[in-house]
Design a protein that fits this description.
mainly alpha
Length: 70
């Protein structure tokens, strides 16, 4: 499945990402780090997340991200 990933990016934690992470963490009952990962994906429009963590499944069901399972 890794051949479907076009790029990997590293982003700076901005105020916008932090604020979005707070909202998403509350909405999806996520840990702070998971909500930062999710918010970064959404804000930067890099919505493919490589993970085996089921924490992100509710966000995927709402079409906020696409999980690439490994």
């Amino acid at each position: 499945a890794f051949n479907t990933v076009e790029k990997i990016s590293i982003s700076t934690l901005t105020k916008e990402i932090a604020e979005q992470a707070g909202k998403l963490g509350y909405a999806f009952k996520m840990t702070p780090i998971d909500s930062i990962v999710l918010a970064t994906a959404i804000v930067t429009d890099n919505t493919n997340i490589i993970t085996g963590d089921p924490t992100y499944q509710p966000a995927e069901k709402q079409k906020k991200i696409k999980i690439i399972r490994w």
